[in-house]
Amino acid sequence: MSTTIGQVIRCKAAVAWEAGKPLVIEEVEVAPPQKMEVRVKIHFTALCHTDVYFWEAKGQNPVFPRILGHEAGGVVESVGEGVTDLAPGDHVLPVFTGECKECAHCKSEESNMCDLLRINTDRGVMIHDGKSRFSINGKPIFHFVGTSTFSEYTVVHVGCLAKINPLAPLDKVCVVSCGISTGLGATLNVAKPKKGSSVAVFGLGAVGLAAAEGARIAGASRIIGVDLNSNRFEIAKKFGVTEFVNPKDYNKPVQEVIAEMTNGGVDRSVECTGHIDAMISAFECVHDGWGVAVLVGVPHKDAVFKTSPLNFLNEKTLKGTFYGNYKPRSDIPAVVEQYMNKELELEKFLTHEVPFSEINKAFDLMLKGEGIRCIIRMDA
Ligand code: NAD
Ligand code: ZN
User: Is residue 49 among the annotated active site residues?
Assistant: First the structure.
């Protein structure tokens, strides 16, 4: 039994003091978990674009000082009042959005948009009492999307923790927390391509490559990667992408190029760019009669989707998805099992690794667009 239960833990955390300034490794105090909360020892974390976006804080409310990080794997250290389905020693993945299991969304088989724990990027405190569990000399340090995994210990609402197979290597499955599940689920849960079908993936970043991985797992025979950056094509080959289209190479809309390549359109498309032009192309490039397009990218707030209603009358379907339609607690453990069964290949996403003390290097790599995922080892 750990002696830290019920005690404040002093540990290292990477604190973002100001927008765009390198993180500083500080000694922080982490309060014990309160009602429905769990304190987790983070073993591995990874950097995702969303961390960089909120660290730069160019388009949103700046919330500083803050502990970022939301893709991670860890082990439960202690649990607060009311937590019955997790215990010290359990292996968990923190997730930026949650599953309370009680609201209308959680009770619906179709939705993963929990009313209580849906992602909230402006909140820097715990829901229970509106306070932070992190402090330095009594001064609060804010949380990020309920996870704050750039800390040796963090406190998370029980509804934002997926309990996973303890045999799963945390240095690999930590990336299932966010980007990989988003792309994978967009294909497997929402686009649902049939074996032997054609799938176009717009945007070959981590999310798009995970969407391609979903298409490979589903048995798609043609996976067409679309990206404005031709440098992405080499890496995408490892993900089963069979053909490439750079819209810049053509003087007609990319949807027309794809329709010509596929005798009228692809069976499924998944958009992972966040750019409105790509969203419209992704919809218009699906085959009439049965084609389904799925939007994953987060658009500019003023973007407007414009297409002819005839596309719908011609039986093209447009869908969108949040977090690949996965419910964090109910569904994510099974994604980890897909990796354990060697169905899902995670290693090809893991291109870099740095010790926690060098976490800013992971930011540099992402800003330079190098690699896919950089794993940050907390014990080094
Ligand atoms: P990324 O920046 O690594 O990759 C995006 C890729 O799209 C880049 O390679 C870029 O060159 C390409 N691209 C940009 N505009 C394009 C265009 N018009 N046509 C073709 N390619 C284009 O991003 P990522 O981390 O892979 O994330 C992808 C998107 O998914 C982002 O918008 C992100 O915000 C979003 N996202 C959504 C969810 C969700 O739940 N819906 C969750 C996580 C991330
Ligand atoms: Zn809920």
Answer: yes
